[in-house]
């Protein structure tokens, strides 16, 4: 029944929706590069996930570097907007709210800016993206990345080296295709601008538990690592058994304290963290409620390293230059979402298998190897022989 409904939906789009939209959109095709010096206002659509916004930060920074008077707007999602809340290279932020009235208000604000160009960095949900681009920038040139059959939605479709290079390198190719701008790899480092309130919140948490940031050499305070237990889907998410075993192993280490984080909606994992013995020596962050993205960024910035099955935390660590060990699966493409310009290692599940099938003993062994390279081991003074 489900397959029949999907087939019916595809047929409806192909033979009803798309023909109507082809008549309505009528976008003039643009093939040549655009002179960035002649662009006054640029709107970027980035209303998807947290990690997607983090890998976009180098693009925002370099656009401003090359054209300081360019006004940049970003259409974000409620999930990822916190990443750019204090970004100095973003002049206007809009949020793709689920509430229709709030969304209409955001679109009207964007229309009021009269953007010259709308660039979509969202590479799926093409019809939604195209409609938003047209509503937010009715007189703008609209540029996207999609299959050729969607050309009618945009003035320009760019071709990107998806899945063979890192996502930020694909975005650099995007700028090259649109503006003839060449960015070098050294220009593509991630950054997250953390406000003082978020930093003070984390400093207070660390002070409470006598922990120190990686940049702080204080000898009487303990270093810490961040162990993330969550991921966005079942293929990437580690099991409770894996989390419990690794947390119990980490709790035995004397030279580093483990701070555990997990998504609020993960009830099974949350129950284990609160009640299983293996987590009793771990600290849980946040201790109450939920943390903001910038608090999370500050916590990871101070850690000796991060352990995670989720690529969003990988990008947080890349932005903070915090070494990261990833527990990955090859079911979904990995190349685009690897750690970038940071010390890292990976442990992948057997080919074609999800992360919960990574053997626990391999996770423990790889973690030990990773930590031994990063964190000084405690000196053991031999006892004097009896007289």
Question: How would you describe the overall organization of this protein?
Answer:
The chain has 387 residues and is of the alpha/beta class. It is 38% helix and 13% strand. It has eleven helices and twelve strands. The protein has helices at 2-25, 50-66, 100-113, 126-136, 167-179, 196-208, 240-251, 267-275, 293-302, 311-320, 360-374, and strands at 41-45, 71-76, 92-95, 117-120, 141-144, 156-157, 224-228, 257-261, 283-284, 306-308, 324-328, 344-348. The chain has a six-stranded parallel beta sheet with strand order 3-2-1-4-5-6, sandwiched between helices. It has a six-stranded parallel beta sheet with strand order 9-8-7-10-11-12, sandwiched between helices. Helix 2 (50-66) packs parallel to helix 5 (167-179) and helix 9 crosses helix 10. It is elongated and about 65 Å long. It starts with a helix and ends in a 13-residue tail after the last helix. The relative contact order is 0.11. The model has no long low-confidence stretch (mean pLDDT 91).
């Amino acid at each position: 029944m489900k397959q029949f409904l999907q087939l019916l939906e595809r047929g409806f789009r192909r033979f009803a929706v798309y023909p109507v939209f082809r008549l309505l959109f009528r976008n003039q095709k643009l093939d040549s590069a655009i002179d960035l010096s002649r662009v006054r206002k640029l709107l970027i659509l980035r209303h998807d996930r947290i990690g997607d916004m983090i890998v976009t930060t180098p693009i925002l920074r370099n656009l401003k570097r090359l054209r300081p008077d360019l006004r940049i707007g970003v259409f974000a999602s409620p999930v990822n907007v916190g990443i750019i809340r204090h970004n100095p290279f973003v002049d206007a932020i809009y949020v793709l709210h689920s509430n229709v009235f709030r969304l209409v208000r955001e679109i009207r604000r964007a229309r009021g800016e009269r953007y010259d160009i709308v660039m979509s960095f969202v590479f799926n949900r093409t019809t939604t993206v195209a409609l938003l681009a047209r509503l937010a920038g009715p007189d703008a040139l609209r540029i996207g990345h999609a299959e050729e059959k969607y050309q009618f939605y945009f003035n320009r479709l760019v071709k990107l080296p998806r899945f063979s290079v890192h996502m930020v390198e694909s975005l650099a190719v995007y700028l090259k295709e649109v503006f003839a701008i060449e960015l070098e790899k050294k220009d593509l480092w991630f950054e997250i601008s953390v406000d003082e309130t978020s930093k003070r919140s984390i400093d207070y948490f660390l002070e409470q538990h006598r922990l120190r940031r990686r940049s702080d050499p204080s000898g009487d305070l303990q270093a810490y690592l961040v162990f993330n237990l969550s991921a966005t889907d079942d293929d990437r998410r580690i099991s409770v058994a894996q989390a419990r075993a690794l947390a119990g192993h980490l709790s035995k280490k004397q030279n580093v304290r483990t701070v555990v984080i997990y998504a609020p909606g993960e009830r099974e994992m949350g129950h284990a963290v609160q009640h299983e013995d293996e987590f009793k020596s771990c600290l849980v962050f946040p201790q109450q409620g939920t943390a903001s993205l910038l608090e999370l960024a500050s916590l990871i910035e101070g850690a000796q390293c991060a352990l995670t099955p989720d690529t969003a935390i990988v990008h947080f660590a890349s932005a903070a230059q915090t070494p990261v060990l990833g527990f990955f699966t090859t079911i979904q493409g990995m190349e685009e979402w690897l750690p970038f310009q940071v010390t890292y290692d990976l442990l992948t599940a057997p080919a074609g298998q999800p992360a919960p099938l990574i053997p626990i003993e391999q996770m423990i062994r790889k973690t030990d190897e990773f930590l031994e390279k990063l964190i000084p081991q405690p000196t053991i003074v031999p006892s004097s022989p009896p007289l």
